[in-house]
Amino acid sequence: MMMVDYTPENLKKISGIIKRNLTYDLLPKKWFIRNASNPMFGHCHNAAGCLYKIFGHESMHMYRALDDEGIYHWWCIDKENVIIDLTSEQYTNFGRTPPYAEGQKANILGFEYRKRVMRLFNRVMNEYEDSDNYGSTLWRKE
Predict the structure, then answer these.
(1) This prediction's pTM
(2) Does the pLDDT of residue 137 top 50, yes or no?
């Protein structure tokens, strides 16, 4: 189910809100130290999961692949095969290339990972609603 219409304008707006809300409390503890010097590091699952949850499987799918350090990286690809990677700076700002060529479709992880995605989702949707005075019929809190 789609929460927000997938348009270039909405993608730009939602992407900005997601990136602004990628906070330290959403990170698994194992990524705390590395995130201090690379602010997008550790947030790829949260960002991709939130984007997917907002725009839905009708518009995009989540992908993941192991990078050159053996760490999974997550992003989305829309129905036009456009890569949407809100945390690509964790690679590009350090002269590295994200592992898109090895990407495979994936789903949101469970347990604590899903809770983090939902925490981010709620923040993003609250900010999105406030910014355009949308009614609460667009989404439901979980």
Answers:
(1) 0.88
(2) no
